[in-house]
Write a structure and sequence with these properties.
Length: 205
């Protein structure tokens, strides 16, 4: 009888030691479901942000070299100018004034109401030379231009590669209604990956 009692005791103890296993598996499945849900939500939010706030753009040509190269991929912020004004040095994307089916990317040089003049490659705004460290010496255009007065609600834009840029010197000032984004981030090629404002700051030093 003693032996039987011991066996029963041992047998009854077996379910108690194996009981936590199903509970652990169930907990693991719940955790995986939670992580999957959170991941899908994060991906969904990222897609919403990219689709509605940012737009991928492919750069064509070398007019913004060395900041941007031909075939480089960047993101532009499509809503930034609903909350803050366009500023000098901003790299903007706009509908080409002479053909609205095309988009151009240039740097803002002159603001509404300002006078812009170029003398031997040096840009003067309201009679004062502006500092342009983003234009390498080998890309300078030493010709003269202007002076011109930037119309109200318009901007004078130029490419950083001055000797190879179709810009406001050719097609005139760009109305603000044509400007639909600011270049903010480069993602391809990988060696250019990063914020364009950071890249510009590094180039300016």
């Amino acid at each position: 009888m003693q032996s039987t009692d011991q066996n029963q005791a041992l047998a009854s103890s077996v379910p108690e030691t194996s009981a936590p296993a199903p509970s652990t598996a169930h907990s693991l499945r719940n955790e995986i479901r939670v992580w999957t849900r959170d991941l899908l939500i994060a991906i969904g939010l990222a897609l919403v942000i990219i689709v509605f706030l940012y737009q991928p753009v492919k750069v064509e040509g070398t007019s913004m070299a060395p900041l941007l190269s031909d075939q480089e991929r960047i993101f532009i912020n499509k809503f930034v100018y609903r909350f803050e004004p366009i500023q000098r040095r901003d790299v903007v994307v706009f509908w080409y004034p002479l053909d609205h089916s095309k988009s151009f990317i240039k740097r803002v040089i002159g603001l509404p109401g300002e006078s812009v003049e170029i003398r031997q490659g040096i840009v003067y705004v309201n009679g004062r030379a502006i500092d342009e460290p983003y234009v390498p010496a080998q890309y300078e255009d030493m010709s003269d231009y202007g002076p011109v007065r930037v119309p109200r609600d318009s901007y004078f834009v130029m490419g950083d590669h001055r000797i190879s840029s179709n810009d406001s010197r050719v097609f005139g000032c760009v109305p603000s209604k044509f400007i639909y984004g600011r270049a903010v981030f480069a993602y391809w090629p990988v060696d250019h990956f990063g914020s364009l404002s950071t890249t510009e700051a590094s180039t300016n030093k």
